[in-house]
Specification:
Blueprint lengths: L29 H22 L5 E6 L4 H10 L4 E5 L8 E6 L5
Antiparallel strand pairs: 1-3, 2-3
Helix pairs in contact: 1-2
């Protein structure tokens, strides 16, 4: 039976396992580590876009709990306008869009 033939599961697993998390007997809390990892990836991408005068807007799907931190990250990289939508059908996720201001 191939991986595609497996029954659907409600559990999602990372492509890159976080072996330093508590669930893998590591020292760090799973949720905190995951939130930091996702915020760090967005920070790096917005930094690169700002450095090369990149796109006017960029959208990500994130956990709603990290939105206040992402607001600060966006401002840091000259993407001060952040719009977030938490869909009713999927309240565990948010779609966040960063936009450059008209001044940039």
């Amino acid at each position: 039976m191939s991986e595609l033939d497996q029954p659907e599961s409600d559990r999602h697993e990372c492509v890159l396992p976080f072996i330093v998390c508590r669930s893998a007997n590591g020292p760090y809390e799973d949720d905190s580590f995951t939130a930091g990892f996702s915020c760090g990836a967005i920070d790096a991408e917005l930094a690169a876009l700002a450095a090369v005068g990149g796109v006017q807007s960029r959208t990500y799907s994130v956990l709603p709990e990290v939105l206040p931190q992402l607001d600060l990250i966006g401002m840091r990289h000259r993407y001060p306008i952040m719009e977030a939508v938490v869909p009713e059908e999927h309240p565990d996720w948010a779609f966040v869009t960063f936009r450059r201001s008209d001044d940039d």
